[in-house]
Write the structure tokens for this entry.
Amino acid sequence: TPEELNKKITSTTGITWGTNLTSRYNLLYGGIDSDDVSIRLTEPNGVMAAVGVRMANDVSCQATAVDFVLPQDQRRLFPYVEASYEPFSDNGFDIPQAQEAIKKNIQHLYARLLGESITLDGPEMEEAYLLWLDIHQTGKDLITAGEESVNLQWSCRGRVNPQTGETLPSEMQVTSDPNYTIRAWRGIMSYLLADYRFLVE
């Protein structure tokens, strides 16, 4: 139900998606208002799927950079990586430690968001890792070409402490993404949050 999904978003990501599921998209997502609509939908439809995609994009935007403002050992979503971790050097050589850390964090996100244990060499990992690499490299190329900014969108910046809600000093905020790694992680978050295994139980 909208109410259950709202609680699941908060418990897994630490982000509250406002009153979107309990108010704005409540009826569209199969909820009731106990007035004109008193029977819940029991089968998903196209509109509900669209709401799920919107939620995945919004929540991944809000949750990703803000998690990186915390020390690594306090992070809910990204305890194995830093925003500076890239899989290849500027000369194109492998950076094995960074590649392993990225994969371990993907593994962590699968467990946290979908409740699934995946192996570091399994098909799910390969698919997600290739997605991360594609977003990362495409974004870096766009920055180099001057077609994409190094700065994050205002709504996707890490400006507050997710544990206290307090606005952080400017030097502690995460407002730029020169290596396009934060946006690559945002893509993985959106990919998993839009998965039917997150939306439907």
Observations:
- The first helix runs from residue 2 to 13.
- The CA atoms of residues 120 and 126 lie 8 Å apart.
